[in-house]
Amino acid sequence: MIMSEKKKIPKKYQPNGFEIQYDDKYIIVGNKAPGFLTVAALWNRENTVQSALNQYVRKGNSKSRKCVYVVHRLDQDTSGVLIFAKTKQAQSFLKDNWKTTKKTYYAIVHGRLARRTGTISSYLIEDDEYVMHATDDTERGKLALTDYEVLKETSKFSLIKIDLLTGKKNQIRVHFADLGHPIVGDMKYGNSATKDGRMALHSKSISFNHPVTKERLTFEAKVPEYFKNIVDYPY
């Protein structure tokens, strides 16, 4: 079942930075805006999507202990589809069955790739500065696999459709930077700021089995308008 329409929740009740598309007793799915943390970080523990959704499910009751549970994450500057669980059991099911979840991203990278399709494979490891790197150490590193297809090229940029086969931290960003084609606006791995300071990486769609009904669900999130300013394409 494809469910791309945003759930009709009055705007004043929509959590900041997260447009809810689906909400039942077990899961919440929505479109995360760029610039928002998924979960708390050392430098920001309150202004996160998880915190906003905790307030949303508590419906103004300061004594409520209701909360949402993290299933996966999107980087702060990445936009798009994001899932949260509303019970521990739902969280466990989604995590345990994550290999059956299909995740599609759109990215705009610098330059033109030598091959229009391919699979990027490497082992990734995080250093003391929280930066991910490829490593030859297969014991310490974690295998990361990224399928990609070039959808359109310009003289300076390439629009890429990505099937994320594994979900390691910063995986897409590291893989394309290592190819010599960093994502536009990625200051961490590409050192290339855009005029509006945004990064061109978007979680376009996600398909998974509902943790209770087991129905296959697909959610899609509209690509931000600033993508069109870089590469014109019928997103």
Task: Explain what the structure shows.
The chain is of the alpha+beta class. Helix content is 14%, strand content 33%. The protein is built from 4 helices and 11 strands. The protein has helices at 49-58, 88-96, 171-178, 226-230; strands spanning 18-23, 27-32, 69-70, 79-85, 102-110, 117-126, 132-135, 142-153, 157-164, 201-209, 216-220. The mean pLDDT is 90.
Q: Give the termini separation.
A: 21 Å
* CATH architecture assignment name: 2-Layer Sandwich
Enter the CATH topology name.
Answer: Pseudouridine synthase
Give the helix level as a range of percent.
10-25%
Q: What is shown here, in short?
A:
This protein has four helices and eleven strands; from the N terminus they run ββαββαβββββαββα.
Task: Give the SSE map.
Layout: E1 18-23, E2 27-32, H1 49-58, E3 69-70, E4 79-85, H2 88-96, E5 102-110, E6 117-126, E7 132-135, E8 142-153, E9 157-164, H3 171-178, E10 201-209, E11 216-220, H4 226-230
